[in-house]
Structures are given as C-alpha cells and as structure tokens.
Amino acid sequence: MVTRERRAGDVDYERHGRRYATVRRTDPRIEARVHAALGDARTVLNVGAGTGSYEPADRYVLAVEPSATMRAQRPAGAAPALDATAEHLPFDDDAFDAAMAMVTIHQWSDVERGLRELRRVARGPVVVLTVDAPALRRYWLAEYFPEVVALDEGRFPTIEQVTGVLGDEGGQVRVDAVPIPLDCVDGFGEAFYGRPEAFLRPEVRAATSGFGLTDPVAVRRGLDRLADDLASGAWDRAHGHLRAQAEYVGTMRLVVATP
Ligand SMILES: C[S@@+](CC[C@H](N)C(=O)[O-])C[C@H]1O[C@@H](n2cnc3c(N)ncnc32)[C@H](O)[C@@H]1O
C-alpha cells in the first residue's frame, strides 16, 4: 500500500477513513442522475473517487484517489485508481469524454485549480456532486451541531464559485437540486434527515468529515442534547414529520458543465 507523506485534502483518511465504505455507498436514485449527466461519454475520469461510489459499470472508468486507505476499500472489479490529486491531473488535455467529482471538492487544497484540471482533461461534461453549504443552516442538524455546520460552510466552495470556474471557458453550466430519498443508501449527513438516531452511531459520524474536524467537546454536547431530545420526544415534536417524508430537498446539488 502506497501512503502519502502528506495528506492531499483537509481530512486524514488514512486515520479516519477505514470504515468509510460501510456507511458511504452508491445510492441508486442519485446514481441515476449522475449517469444521466455523463450523457453518452464512453470514457470517464472519477476524481476524489474514494471507494468507487457512483462510478458507472458500463463505461471505461479511471479513478484518481490520493488516499491509500480509500483505494484499499474499492471493491474487486472496480475501476483502477491512481494515486494523484485533482490539482495536478496526470493526463493530457481532452483525454476523457467526461469527468466526475462526487462530494470531494470541499476537501481539495485548491478547488479552482482542481476544477480547471477537470475541465482541461474532459472533452465533454464535467459532473460535480456538491453541497450548497449556506443552506445547511436550515437543516435540523444545525440546532444540535452548529459548530459542524459552521465549519462546513467555510469548507465548501459556494455554488457560484463552482459555476464561475466551470463556466469560465464558455459552454453551459446547469445546477440541479438533488432530492434525498428517505432510505438513502449513501450515508452523508443529510441522508439521515428522517433517521436521527443514526447520528448516535460513531461510524456514521466518522463517515461525514465535518464531525471529525470539529472540536470533540462540541460534538459530545450536541450528541447529548440529541439523545435527550430523542428520549423525551422533543425531536419528534419538532421534526417527527420527516420520519415519513419520502424525499428531502436539502443542500445536495449536481453541477453539470458542458463545453
Ligand atoms: C467524502 S470522500 C468522497 C469519496 C467518493 N467520491 C464518494 O462519493 O464516496 C472525499 C474524497 O476526496 C479525496 N480527496 C481529498 N483531497 C483530494 C484532492 N486534492 N484531490 C483528489 N481527491 C481528494 C479524499 O481522499 C476522499 O477519498
């Protein structure tokens, strides 16, 4: 296993990513949107590919993933993964039909450079799944973990930044809100909008980087409050309707740039 001396993004996946694939997996409803956005691309580069979520099985895929711990969790038969970073993609201009980056750009050391690299190596669509972070404040989780939400607001580039960079060289950029299903298979923070008990599980928090980067004392405080409110019924009185809400349109956005 080839491990980097310095991590590529703001999260140390060699330490915190060992159980990532047990919680973060492809959700088929979100996957259908991503694959539709890739259009008829036959060759696809997946950057910040992690354990392989959302990679299409019916096209030629090459993955770029700087964490050895994440690469090691890619299932047998998954696309090969290179140890590289978004900011320095080791490919020629227009080398792929399309490029994708799923829930990763907020971790890059230089988002603008990384997005320009995606644009450079793809002759067709660049497809980015990301979060409209200011909207996170409307999510009930912000009542319990304001520090996590404040931190994420600072980490995620704004949607305007992303569309600005990708639209810079012409072409069209579309932003679609991605509805999250109640039984979402991919365990990112908002996936549990109607299943609040999930946040009491350490492996769920570990798979959402904002928790790992926040002061553990603040996380403990929020957890205690959430556990109390679940036990007393206070959470259900305020938000219980979400337990039966089929979809939640929160902060998840699909940005699709076509040249
Ligand atoms: C939240 S994970 C998402 C993984 C996968 N795309 C998914 O949807 O599950 C973020 C990934 O971005 C990777 N990453 C961090 N900094 C990066 C960089 N500068 N270039 C490329 N990937 C990076 C991390 O190693 C990690 O695997």
Topology diagram in text:
Layout: H1 13-16, H2 20-23, H3 28-37, E1 43-47, E2 60-64, H4 68-72, E3 81-82, E4 98-102, H5 111-121, E5 126-131, H6 141-144, H7 146-155, H8 159-167, E6 172-177, E7 180-181, H9 202-206, H10 209-213, H11 216-232, H12 234-239, E8 247-248, E9 252-258
Parallel strand pairs: 1-2, 1-4, 2-3, 4-5
Antiparallel strand pairs: 5-9, 6-9, 7-8
Helix pairs in contact: 5-8
The chain binds S-adenosylmethionine (SAM).
Task: Please explain how this structure is put together.
- The chain is an alpha/beta fold and 259 residues long.
- The chain has one domain (13-258): 3-Layer(aba) Sandwich (Rossmann fold).
- The protein contains twelve helices and nine strands.
- The protein has helices at 13-16, 20-23, 28-37, 68-72, 111-121, 141-144, 146-155, 159-167, 202-206, 209-213, 216-232, 234-239; strands at residues 43-47, 60-64, 81-82, 98-102, 126-131, 172-177, 180-181, 247-248, 252-258.
- The strands form two sheets. The chain has a seven-stranded mixed sheet with strand order 3-2-1-4-5-9-6, with helices on both faces. A two-stranded antiparallel ribbon has the order 7-8.
- α5 runs parallel beside α8.
- The N and C termini lie far apart (37 Å).
- The mean pLDDT is 94.
- Bound molecules: S-adenosylmethionine (SAM).
- The site of S-adenosylmethionine (SAM) has 24 residues, from loops.
